[in-house]
Amino acid sequence: MARAATMKGASFGYKMRKFVASKHFTRGTLAVIGFFVLWQAGSMGLMPFMHAIPTPVTVAEAFWEFMGTGKYWQSWMDSTLRVTYGFVAAQILGIPLGLGMGWNRNFKDFTYPLFELMRPIPPLAWVPVSILFWPTNESSIAFITFIGAFFTIVVNVLGGVSAIPRQLVDAAVSFGASPRQVFWRIVLPATIPSIVTGMMVGIGITWNVVIAAEMIAGNTGLGRLTWEAYLAGHTPGIIVGMISIGVAGYVSSMAVKMIGDWLMPWKKVF
Amino acid sequence: MANNGNKNQQNQQKGELILENVNRVFRMPGAPACHALKNCSFTVPRGSLTVLVGPSGCGKSTLANIAAGYDHADSGKVLLDGKPVTGPGRDRIMVFQETALWPWMTVMKNATFGPTMLGGMNKSEAEDRAIALLDKVGLKDFRDKYPAQLSGGMQRRAELCRALVMSPKVMILDEPFRGLDVMTRELMQEYLLTLYRETGLTMLFITSEIEEALFLGDQILVMTNLPGTIKTTVEVDLPRPRDFSVLGTERYRQIKSEVMESLYEEGAKIFAKLDGAGDLLGSCRAGS
């Protein structure tokens, strides 16, 4: 925790250079290289059941080919936009809903049962109604993505509000804070760590969901790209799609983590 | 500026806190009602440091919460300068057992939150006062740190400042040094005495440690086990300013044995009770 604040104010470039020079980065890089070595060994027939998998070199060649096409980059763009729409909408609606449920008992009485009825329905079970209700394919996929992140953020925020130590609120009341001031200056900042956790979990789920939704209902996107490679029997293409999804998820998690660190200078996300 | 801060504190009103026949019963469904406080009566005189000492689980925190206005008495009166206490207020500031600093605010923001509420002071005035107090407890250079960056003892000092900057009529300290190591604890007691001497605030200090009670207090209220009530009041006539040399004096030993006698009678009762009425205690804990 203390470290987060000493780094506060340092430039992004400085932090990145420092990170790349650290043992944490070296270890992570070694693990990724090790994975590729094992993969190469496996696909050369040195490990059972892996002979059908193309070698990393073949995949790298396919990757190069994909990267030369406009369709590949368009797939990135489409999936990223869908994730962004769904994710941002989930935060905009989910954070106030969670705060409201946690802060106001009457509001919770009305909303919580309905919320808990809807929560167990998996995002993909929303695909049929979503296609029926939403005017375009695009909006229905964004909606399914939204569902993926929405319930997670609400549960996290609700849990966060409920877990605020009582004396943090009591102290503010003694100091003369009005209910409005208690909400904005105590309850909301006290919930930020839970909001950030909800966002971290949520961004991963939105990528899971968007890929699956694209495979079922989409015409474009990284999920569709992967699926089409499968239909065409183009195995290296499938793996190119998978790696791309992994990279996309990783990059967006890092972006969310940066937002989290910016939102709470007193604490590190993790 | 620091002088200005001092003057404000000296001019302020010191309150007198009186509890009259305060009763508090916790009722939990499916458990026998638990009488946490029974006919509790005592006075915290104007400008005194009164210490409430009692075995753990005897209702000390319940009493503190009622005095602060977070909880209510089922019957009886709580009066501050003759006026009944009806809820939390700026005239009674509590320092809690666990740290209640707001983790997302720096030390300075924590300390100036209260004074700037309700259109009280403007920001720079509040900051001047806060700095004067932080300086006294050696935290001036830590004003821009977050609570998590401070040691346990520093957090408690910051919290004392946050309460003192309000110049409350009464300060209620509910086992504020619990969980600190022995050395830090002794240091905190000295800090508290310094602040008490300089501000002259009325303080109600709650603890389960006899040594702490003796070292700090003008008078010690010994509380009984459930149902909690004030068993005896012991005047501590040790000279002030006090330092740790008083611990070796004959008078200290006399008062200590007086307090210990009535306290250990209570401590022994709790073990006798636990055999027969463990449930009763349990529901009280849950209720408080």
Provide an overview of this structure.
The complex is a heterodimer of chains A (270) and B (288). With 270 residues, chain A is mainly alpha-helical. Chain A has 2 domains: 53 residues, no CATH class; 209 residues, MetI-like (MetI-like fold, Orthogonal Bundle). In chain A, α5 packs antiparallel against α10, α9 packs antiparallel against α10 and α10 packs antiparallel against α12. The N terminus of chain A is likely disordered. Chain B has one domain: P-loop containing nucleotide triphosphate hydrolases (Rossmann fold, 3-Layer(aba) Sandwich). Helices cover 41% and strands 21% of the residues of chain B. In chain B, the strands form 2 sheets. In chain B, strands 6-7-8-3-9-10 form a 6-stranded mixed beta sheet, with helices on both faces. Chain B has a 4-stranded antiparallel beta sheet with strand order 2-1-4-5, covered by helices on one side. In chain B, α6 links the parallel β7 and β8. In chain B, α1 crosses α4. The radius of gyration of chain B is 19 Å and the shape is globular. At the A-B interface, α9 and α10 of A face β6 of B.
Largest interface, C-beta closer than 8 angstroms, per-chain residues? A-B, 25 and 26 residues
CATH class of the largest domain in chain A: Mainly Alpha
Give the CATH H-level superfamily of chain B.
P-loop containing nucleotide triphosphate hydrolases
Do you know the CATH topology of chain B?
Rossmann fold
Q: In percent, how much strand structure appears in the residues of chain A?
A: under 5%
Rounded to an integer in angstroms, the radius of gyration calculated over CA atoms of chain A is 22 Å
Major β-sheet profile of chain A: none
In spatial order, strands of the major sheet of chain B run: 6-7-8-3-9-10
CA-CA gap between termini of chain A:
9 Å
| Low-confidence segments of chain A | 1-6
Looking at CATH, the homologous superfamily of the largest domain in chain A is MetI-like
**Count of structural domains of chain A:** 2
Helix content of chain B: 40-55%
Secondary structure tally: strands of chain A: 0
Q: What is the C-level CATH assignment of chain B?
A: Alpha Beta
Query: How many runs of DSSP E, i.e. beta strands of chain B?
Result: 10
Number of helices of chain B: 8
